[in-house]
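In practice, a research group might receive sequence data for several interacting partners and want a quick structural hypothesis before committing to experiments. The following worked case mirrors that situation: the sequences arrive first, and a predicted assembly follows.
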Amino acid sequence: MALRTFIKRNLILNNKCPLRISQRLSHFTFVPDTVSASEGETQRMNLFQAINNSLDIALTQDPTAVIFGEDVAFGGVFRCTVGLQEKHGKSRVFNTPLCEQGIAGFGIGAATAGATAIAEIQFADYILPAFDQICNEAAKYRYRSGGIYDCGSLTIRAPCSAVGHGAVYHSQSPEAFFAHCPGLKVVVPRGPIKAKGLLLSCIRDKNPCLFFEPKILYRSAVEQVPVKDYTMPLSKADILVEGDDITLVGWGTQVHVLREVCQLAKDQLNVSCELIDLVTILPWDKETIAQSVKKTGRLLIAHEAPLTSGFGAEIAASIQHECFLNLEAPIERVTGFDTPFPHMFEPFYMPDKWRCFEAVKKLVNY
Amino acid sequence: MLPIRLARFGIRLVAANCKRINIGSLSQVAREFSSDERPQFPGSRSQWTEKLEFIRPDLYDGIPVYRVMDRKGKVIDPSQDPQLSEEMVIKMYKCMTQLNTMDRILYESQRQGRISFYMTNYGEEGTHIGSAAALDPKDLIFGQYREAGTLMWRGFTLDQFMNQCYGNVDDGGKGKQMPVHYGSKELNFVTISSPLGTQMPQAVGAAYAYKRSQNGLCVMCYFGEGTSSEGDAHAALNFSATLDCPVIFFCRNNGYAISTPSKEQYRGDGIAGRGPAYGMLTIRVDGNDVFAVYNATLKARQVAISEMRPVLIEAMTYRIGHHSTSDDSTAYRSVDEVRYWDERDHPISRLRNYMLSKGWWGDAQEKEWKEDCKRQVMTAFARAEKKLKPNWKEIFTDVYHEMPSHIREQMKQMEEHVQKYAEHYPLKNFTKD
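A structural hypothesis for the assembly, expressed as tokens:
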């Protein structure tokens, strides 16, 4: 929809006044998206508020919609569901027992029986007990029944990715596990405006969706978010910065890291980078990436998750196939290491701007 | 000696003799400061005890097995006779025997390599028909895989069963799943999937949606005693209780999960023993007594809907057939054991005895029905076998609501490939565009 275009334009023209979110050990600088005046009234919201607003709209518009998970009733451990139970009632926003496979299975069943089910898994790290329900059941429901049953009205939200001190089980980015599972949609927003529109799209999409929310952005990412009900297209990548020499692809928080890399490359190397937020991991927007790489001839993919079989591998292999004659250098991946996510060593683990910058240098000098 | 009364079942649990422990002055001080005689912990409602005693699970008889008829088909307590009409009872009997006939023919057809896989329902026909008959046809059923009788009761035709097993062009599931993975939207029977237990929390979610929509219906969830060991079973029982869902959990405890006997599956009092621990109404029934199953299900349904709470039924039965066509059960159990259940305690023969005693059935009818039944099954079988398979492009449909471009691209690649190498693929067995 139109929102995407104007965000893109504004981002390209408006790359000033970056908001320093935290001086202490922050590995990125958040640059807010903006929307044009034609989008109507806006309100200052951080990421958790935008998600809350999105959920509020979903509940208001759809009387079958229910929100459930661990600790969502009092507002959620990240405040994403604050006030929703008071407003919409205990039968629509409620706590479940502490059991992820139960939450996912319950959501699938509710969706199968005609409800819009919005489940929360408290941390993406704890989604794995629900892996069977998500991959064997939710993803295959429509297929295996020949289309007579489906759980398309299921959305599972989960906070993901690094947070500075989350260590092994409060930092993971599990998107690649699910990217290998046909039937699912997997989405990661980079900020409040996108989060609201994409979450509403996921909730209304006729397929089971996983919505991973970079939790470090919950409070630190603030934007003027349209108050109205709006959706944003799934499976569409956003070109945030246009450039000619090299394509940078990331998603979630990593988009903000790469934006700084664009600036560093421009200032220090006089290299023009094109920055793309992939937005949807599955089914992903191969066309936008391929078009960009055909223009630039170079591709850097960066993600927080480990390298081996990370989603960067899928992008690299596909783009190599699509753009073989255009590539001027091997595709680079800057990612987390093939280790669990560590506590004290997070600054060394992250695919930060200096590791990405070095990769850009390598690519342009190849 | 401290007898603890488990009120719900009236079971006396006698703990081992145990000397009073002198906790000393500390506990007395605590008691003086306590404003309430009862413990105030938020996690339980109970009383104090100064005796150190573990609750022993093995000192009482298990939950009793509810039955209506004895093995000869005689109603034991007339007040428990559901007083079903002759027509209804004959329909139950015909459904059970038709299922049995279909099982025999499809089992044989797998042995001959005509279908790839099959699972029979031998010995458990009573659990299917008794429970299905007590439900409203609009109640939603989630099954495991050994509940074909419930579908048959609701009117799934022999052709539909056969089409699914053959994965032919008329299979509602478009030939995507293994045989016996049936499903029907019209008959409110959610498509079966192989992963065990996954349907259980799903049934709870569906029941929650039904409660909110106030449609006056409940959800029925079948599973085996082996499946009850899955984490999803725990999730489902607990969610259903805490979220007050109108769902009936129906466990078919047939003594085996493939080769694993139930004594290696659990150490407690079966599955029913767990119900009260989750705060659920629970009953154990004779699964070979179609009336006991019917009565329990009918009552469970009333309770589930009027009180908005889950009910657990454990139907005790015996898996007379092999686990599946990929299993030879003589490798882990005796032929004599199987013969006992087949000849001495079978749901079909018990119901036949009941009908004979009522004068509703006779040898001539039995003979005529058997022949008629076999003919119907064979006709449907032959029809299904002759049909072509669906178009191979169905591989790519229904992955998503809409076909994404990458899947469309893969379909196109395969189409070009198949054209080029047509002679290497069984195209003649599949329908064309």
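Before designing any experiment, note the following. Chain B touches chain A through 50 residues (CB under 8 Å). The radius of gyration of chain B is 26 Å.
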